[in-house]
Amino acid sequence: MGFRLEGIFPAALLPLLLTMILFLGPLMQLSMDCPCDLTDGLKVVLAPRSWARCLTDMRWLRNQVIAPLTEELVFRACMLPMLAPCTGLGPAVFTCPLFFGVAHFHHIIEQLRFRQSSVGSIFVSAAFQFSYTAVFGAYTAFLFIRTGHLIGPVLCHSFCNYMGFPAVCAALEHPQKWPLLAGYALGVGLFLLLLQPLTDPKLYGSLPLCMLLERTGASETLLCS
């Protein structure tokens, strides 16, 4: 289930670093538009008093601690080890995120109940949210399988909850559009380049999840070697 001490420090740091590289463009955009938000984020990391304030904020606890921990525990630590021996790692990586995406459909009920928008726009928004949560779920499933740790997916989930979906449209209309777009492109390029090296299983010790499989296929070789 990803609870082990072997390789825990690289498992905590490297997947988070990889995710921050992917968000290079949005981080640049945040530093340009809302430097106070980025400063506040650094203060939370560095200042004990800021941590104390955050721990008394239920919305912060929900978004940054409770949701990442419980969702990764259920959809990665519990579900993946059950699916992988039956389907193989490749199909499991893409099946779990579908359940993860559907689990966010409760937002539809909330929006319909409070009439926050038209029915059509609510369902379009839900379809979009399902799509990107499914992609994100596949990414954290990949991290879980490659590292054999739960801590990496949890920290990446918390970071992505903090950042939100990249504001690409705002970047296209930004006064500093070209540097921002270069940051977006550089972040995606570096992410793809470093995805395999920074999740190399050798950095994290043995992989219990990979060992569940008695057969070896192309997808298992890609994910576990």
TrEMBL record:
One of its GO terms (molecular function) is metalloendopeptidase activity. One of its GO terms (cellular component) is endoplasmic reticulum membrane. InterPro entries: Rce1, Rce1/LyrA-like_dom. GO terms for biological process: CAAX-box protein processing. Its EC number is 3.4.26.1. It is found in: Endoplasmic reticulum membrane. Keywords: Endoplasmic reticulum, Hydrolase, Membrane, Protease, Transmembrane, Transmembrane helix. The keyword Transmembrane helix applies. This is CAAX prenyl protease 2. It comes from Mus musculus.
